Amino acid sequence: MPYNKEVYSTLYYKEPGPKLDKESPFESMMERFRFSAEILKLEDGMFNYLSNPVKQVTVSIPVEMDNGRLEVFEGYRVIHTNILGPSKGGLRFAPDVNIDEVKALASWMTWKCAVVNVPFGGAKGGIRCNPRELSARELERITRRFTASMLEVFGPDLDIPAPDMGTNEHTMAWIMDTYSMHARKTVTPVVTGKPPIIGGSLGRREATGRGVVTVTLAAMNKLGISPINAKVVIQGFGNVGSISAKLMYEQGARIVGISDISGGYYNPDGIDIPSAIEYSAGNRNSLEGFTGADTVTNEELLELDCDVLIPAAKEDQISRKNAHKIKARIISEGANGPVTANADSLLEDMGVLVIPDILANAGGVTVSYFEWVQDRQGYFWTEERVNRRLNRMMRQAFQLVYDVKEQYNVTLRQAAYIYAIKKVSETLKLRGIYA
Length: 435
Ligand code: NAD
Description:
Blueprint: H1 5-12, H2 25-39, H3 44-51, E1 55-64, E2 70-79, E3 87-94, H4 99-115, E4 121-128, H5 136-149, E5 159-163, H6 169-183, H7 204-222, E6 231-235, H8 239-250, E7 254-260, E8 263-266, H9 273-281, E9 294-296, H10 298-302, E10 308-311, E11 330-332, H11 341-349, E12 353-355, H12 357-360, H13 363-377, H14 383-408, H15 412-431
Parallel strand pairs: 3-4, 3-5, 6-7, 6-10, 10-11, 11-12
Antiparallel strand pairs: 1-2, 2-4, 7-8, 8-9
Residues 208, 235-241, 259-261, 298, 312-314, 334-336, 361, 364 line the site of nicotinamide-adenine-dinucleotide.
């Protein structure tokens, strides 16, 4: 069996680590990686190579706080692979970030980049801090000192961070500026997710939701479901959920259910999505009190009668506990890890087509790639061009993965992993192991 338990467990179950219960998104991802590696008969050496990050860096970040006290934060950057190109992945600021979580998320990025054919490896970083308790000046000092410690790690041809939980486009601007000050020139492609005025890409904000909708429409087409009047339910009404809702609505779909942390909202005749977006924007990004639908719980929302369900809120939403109650014919994973591994086979038996996260929500990293390309060229595209190319890459990725599904007679998720693992391992074989 191409699975070296010892390496696997040393890497990912070392104490202290995140609580990885059977249904953790990372354990689910590893389960799927392992399964697809077995189908591909990946040899042990290759399996172990792809289970290990190529580089992991932990740094101490001393920072003088606003009150004059010195505090030391811990920061991490893990490069899982750089086989397809420079590594790419977000930077997370959260109180519970740790190296094991960052390692897990870095490997996730390897498979996501490979599936959508962007020439990047996978990475992730984090700083253990609570951004809500820090002033903007403190956050800036932490970010800049962390960047200074990562000068040998980051770089447009080496490793390119992006925003993630607790970081935003302003954080990226500070990283770009700090890196540039040391390089004695402006180096915009060192990070993506920057404000457009300093080298960010148009269309980045909508990219993930747009990608979700592109692959969802492709899947509907395979099943012969027309978007006109198709019943769609969307969990989560933030960046990914609200943009997916807006674009599906514009395709003529009937969005019968939406939700956010305040609860679910159901209207069998279809919700007026532009009004819901306007309502939420004027209500501190909350749907609480929205009157264009009846209220349901988030659990009930997932079980509503619909053609397409887009979980776009958080991980672990569909598990063995509720998978059998799902009525959708297609689940399109806008969020990372919304379906647990142990629900996969149940959904497969029920004939539900699940578009896996590493494909469905890869629109964000695809436009990050466009941002990097534009920065390197010093030539910026129109939003229309960004969207057109994003749609094309997402459609192509969907078709390639769909072909693998047919070829191996597996689920779309297994096909996505097979496609990604095959691509990365074949590239590694061609490059060879430098001795
Ligand atoms: P966001 O913070 O903008 O929105 C999250 C939404 O989910 C909010 O509406 C929130 O109220 C809702 N929510 C939170 N807990 C909920 C619960 N228990 N039940 C129902 N709704 C709940 O976040 P986002 O950027 O839209 O990201 C959503 C998911 O998509 C995350 O899993 C994220 O990792 C993933 N993702 C995002 C991007 C991106 O570009 N933003 C890219 C890839 C993956």
